[in-house]
Amino acid sequence: MTALWQRICFISGGIISVGFGLWHLFVPYLYKWKSYMGDAPEELLRAVMATNFFMGLSLAILGAITILLSIRFYQHLSFVRIWMLVMSGLWLVRVIYQVVSPQGRMIPGLSWIMLCAFILTSLLFLIPAISSLIHVSNKPD
Q: 4-50 pLDDT, tens per residue?
């Protein structure tokens, strides 16, 4: 799994993951979430903000680990393959969630852009992972 295109896909997926994670840290302030909460209890607002914060932080950390694996620890092929499949699964679940319960409908076309971004990110992990597994299974004994 040393093909350059596989590493480029993996790093790109990691960068996108970091980007989405960091973006989520600022979303509540950019879109003034508090103004949409109305008379909701303060604890509910804090719970929503905390969930978003930890999701964004987790996504940024997972993306950073992905980039680190791509650059520094790529020789550990079995672990890298597993990590690519995990990241692909994570983004595939996000694709499914976007199809079932689309977000971004307040801005025309945004939900479709989000869906495409989630599909692309999932494929950036899935295609190299499958390719590397096929490559391994095709090696002569």
A: 888 899 999 999 999 999 999 999 998 888 888 888 899 999 999 99
Q: Which two tokens stand for residue 30?
A: 């950019």
Q: Which residues contact 90 (CB under 8 A, 6 or more apart)?
A: 62
Each as own residue / partner, the long-range contacts of residues 63-68 (CB below 8 Å, 24 or more positions apart, any chain) are 63/13, 63/14, 63/15, 63/16, 63/17, 63/18, 63/19, 63/20, 63/21, 64/14, 64/18, 65/14, 66/10, 66/11, 66/13, 66/14, 66/17, 67/11, 67/14, 67/15, 67/18
* Residue carrying structure tokens 């490559």: 135
Residue found under tokens 């479709």:
112
Kindly state the tokens that stand for 26. 């600022």
- At 136, the pLDDT band (50, 70, 90 cuts) reads low
Is 6 in contact with 88 (CB distance < 8 Å)?
A: no
Using DSSP, how many helices (H) and how many strands (E) does the chain show? 5, 0
Report the 10 Å Cβ neighbour count for 107: 9
